[in-house]
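Can't paste images in this forum, so I'm doing it all in text. The chain is below; anyone willing to post the predicted structure tokens underneath?
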Amino acid sequence: MTPALLSEVLSKAPAAGVFRDLIVGNESRDDAAVYRLNDAQALASAERRPVDTSAMYLEQMKLTQETLTSFGYATGAIDGIMRFETASALRAFQREQGLKVTGQANPETLAALGIEDRLYRRPR
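Text version of the structure:
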């Protein structure tokens, strides 16, 4: 397979895995290069998968609850679910830290707790 033909195939391929189907029966020395390219494209597409924000939220809320509990605030169950007890603990923490009292785990509150806000962080 010539480099020009390989470039054309790459530009038109809709998904990883296409290259192996295109090369079946071709005994060219470029087969190994195409397989490596296919693997690299599969890795690149895996990096572009959508992020499961609900799972990230649960983990971030669990960490918030654990941190508040370690600071002496009663958050209720440490399960990642925002309930009345967690909101009350957040309000008490915000009040004592001089933050805007919302009862929400907003970026300012998370920063005061020393937690990285992975949900609202924007790419640079």
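Helices lie at 3-12, 18-23, 31-47, 53-70, 84-97, 107-113. The first helix runs from residue 3 to 12.
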